[in-house]
Amino acid sequence: MKRKKKYQLTNSELTLMEILWQADRPLNRQEILEAATTEDGQLLFAVSSLHLLINDLMDKNYIAPMGGAGKDTNYGRRFAPLVTRNEHFAIQITSTEQYTPEDIPSIVCSLAKYSGISDLDGLLQEIEKTIRKKKGEGGK
C-alpha cells in the first residue's frame, strides 16, 4: 500500500488550515487575515508570513488557489483546502514508520476513549456505514 507523503505542519500552517477548514468555502487573503485576528486585535501569525504559509501549503498539496479573473488575478485569488481535517490527522498517523493497518481497531478504540463516546454500538454502525459508502465511491 502506497502511503501519502507525510508533511509535518508548523503551528502557523495548522492555524491557517483550521481557518480554511472552518470557513467551508475558499477564502481570499483579506478574509484569512480577518479570521486570523483575535478579539484583542492580535494576529495568530505574522501578516508578512501569509504568502510563505500559502506557498508552503500549496507545495504540500494541502491547499489550492481558486483564481481570480482579469485584473483581479492577484487580488481575487481564494484558497481552498485539498485535505480535510480528518484526512490530515489520518495522514499523520498512517505515515509513521510503526503504523500498520492492523493498528486501525486500536486507533478507533483510542479515539472513542479520548472522545468520551458512550454509545459504542452506534459508533460502530456509523463506521460501518461510512466504510460502505466509501467503498461504493470507489474507495479501497
From TrEMBL:
Keyword presence, Nucleus: no
Top-rank lineage group of the source organism: Bacteria
Pfam families per record: Penicillinase_R
GO molecular function: DNA binding
SUPFAM superfamilies according to UniProt: Winged helix' DNA-binding domain (SSF46785)
Record has Transcription as a keyword: yes
InterPro entries from the UniProt entry: BlaI_family (IPR005650), WH-like_DNA-bd_sf (IPR036388), WH_DNA-bd_sf (IPR036390)
Keywords: DNA-binding, Transcription, Transcription regulation
Entry's family note: Belongs to the BlaI transcriptional regulatory family.
Name under which the protein is recorded: BlaI/MecI/CopY family transcriptional regulator
Native organism: Candidatus Acutalibacter pullicola
